[in-house]
Design a protein that fits this description.
Layout: E1 15-20, H1 23-28, H2 34-44, E2 50-56, E3 63-68, H3 88-95, E4 104-108, H4 110-121, E5 130-135, H5 143-152, E6 161-167, E7 170-175, E8 178-183, H6 184-189, H7 196-199, E9 211-214, E10 227-231, H8 234-245, E11 249-252, H9 256-282, H10 288-296, H11 304-307, H12 318-321, H13 336-345, H14 354-357, H15 365-380
The chain binds flavin-adenine dinucleotide.
Flavin-adenine dinucleotide binds near residues 53, 79, 213 and 215.
């Protein structure tokens, strides 16, 4: 069967509330279970060969990337893990070697989409073979920060937490003995909360995916029970139409007030992102290279920032190790190590934060490349469409 049926009932730009007819998925899903149901339908009907998603590992802080080929295993992958900082685009390109000859369905956040676009330009992945179900993303909390914050700020043993969620601007935990929510603004004012790259992110609704799914805008009796789905491509329209026609997914028109609210929340989140950019970039101050040199003097040259960067290819691994510009055996490395890396990646940095997240010396690497990229975006903004400017 081809990727498209003849005439989808839905079209790009349509929006619906959708919820699953599958009781097992409904039990585990974050909202209406539309994401898991759509991916399951695509796999069952051979629209894709496999589905790349995450599932909960040993606890709520542990998001494990998983390639699913048996549709019945998808129920275990429903639900949102806000402490899951894995870049799905990296899993596809690095662990699955791009899987260019397979049709893959994937759940993606904004950073995954931006990274996939860069990877497609470099012919590392085949965008035509990807079915992308996007999830709105207000940001992730690193697992280490989450544990620390829950202990220090919530006064709860992080090992007792069995569920976390982000709702109405609060990070909420459920644990043995109760539940507690604290506003993200309060957490972030005190140095807790989302990863710094997520705070600066301006890509909240993933409209470059085939479908953009989220909870913003679901109000009334469907609040918490349905997924808000926006159709972003013909492929997405086709899958949604088929799943609804087959009766595996229920749908209804969204409440107009809900559409308005979704737009407002998105706008407020973008403003917040701009505020964080201003605040973070100001840290570079009058002497950015001085700050970069000072910070990177802690570097132990483990190469993690290079190996986990979705846009750093020619320099990855062995290539950089034998570079004429990098003296072997020198720790911390000569500033050339980082300057070369920055000059190589910064015009395509997607602000995924993997360099910083996985740096054992906690150097604010994402800040540097993102500041350079954002500056270039501002310079070119009048020539770009809004979506190209989204990171
Ligand atoms: C980190 C994060 C932040 C989010 N923030 C917002 C927000 O601010 N506003 C909003 O409207 N919606 C947000 N969402 C989306 C929302 O939580 C639901 O995922 C969406 O509404 C779909 O609901 P569902 O019941 O259809 O999904 P489900 O059927 O429960 O499927 C969820 C899918 O998400 C995947 N997933 C879970 N955690 C991750 C992760 N960390 N990285 C990648 N994939 C993951 C699962 O594997 C599964 O495929 C966020 C999601 C995530 C993962």
């Amino acid at each position: 069967m081809g990727l498209f049926s003849s005439k989808p009932d839905m079209k790009k730009g349509d929006m619906v509330y959708a919820w699953t007819a599958d009781q097992e998925i409904a039990k585990k899903a974050e909202c209406g279970g539309a994401v898991t149901t759509l991916l399951k339908y695509a796999l069952e009907h051979k629209m894709v060969d496999a589905v790349l998603v995450v599932k909960r590992g040993s606890d709520v802080y542990d998001a494990v990337p998983t390639l699913v080929t048996d549709p019945k295993d998808l129920k275990d992958t429903a639900g949102s893990l806000h402490c899951g900082t894995v870049l799905m685009a990296n899993v596809l390109q690095k662990r699955l070697k791009g899987a260019k000859n397979m049709k893959i369905g994937m759940t993606v956040k904004g950073c995954d989409l931006m990274a996939l676009a860069e990877l497609a330009k470099r012919k590392e992945v085949n965008r035509d073979n990807l079915f992308l179900v996007g999830v709105n993303c207000g940001g992730t909390v690193s697992p280490i920060m989450a544990r620390y914050m829950i202990k220090e700020k919530y006064g709860v043993d992080p090992d007792l937490v069995h569920k976390e969620e982000i709702d109405k601007g609060q990070f909420i935990i459920e644990y043995e003995g109760g539940h507690k929510g604290i506003s993200i603004d309060e957490l972030e004012d005190e140095g807790f909360g989302r990863r710094s790259n997520c705070r600066r992110c301006l890509y909240k609704v993933p409209r470059q995916a085939d479908l953009a799914c989220g909870n913003w805008g679901v109000i009334g009796d469907k609040a918490g029970k349905a997924t808000f789905v926006e159709v972003c491509s013909d492929k997405g329209a086709d899958l949604l139409s088929r799943a609804v026609k087959a009766g595996v997914l229920h749908s209804e028109a969204p409440v107009p007030k809900g559409i308005e609210m979704r737009q407002k929340v998105e706008g407020a989140m973008l403003k917040l992102g701009e505020k964080w950019r201003k605040k973070d970039f100001a840290k570079l101050g009058k002497d950015p290279w001085g700050m970069i040199n000072k910070e990177t003097s802690r570097c132990i040259k483990c190469y993690s920032c290079i190996e986990n960067c979705p846009v750093c290819f020619p320099l990855a691994g062995a290539e950089l190790k034998k570079s004429y510009a990098i003296a072997p055996g020198q720790v911390p490395p000569n500033p050339m190590f980082h300057l070369r890396r920055l000059s190589h990646i910064s015009d395509s940095c997607v602000n995924c934060g993997q360099c910083e997240e996985l740096c054992p010396m906690e150097i604010s690497l994402a800040l540097f490349s993102h500041a350079i990229r954002a500056e270039a975006d501002i310079a070119f903004a009048p020539k770009l469409g809004k979506s190209d400017y989204s990171n």
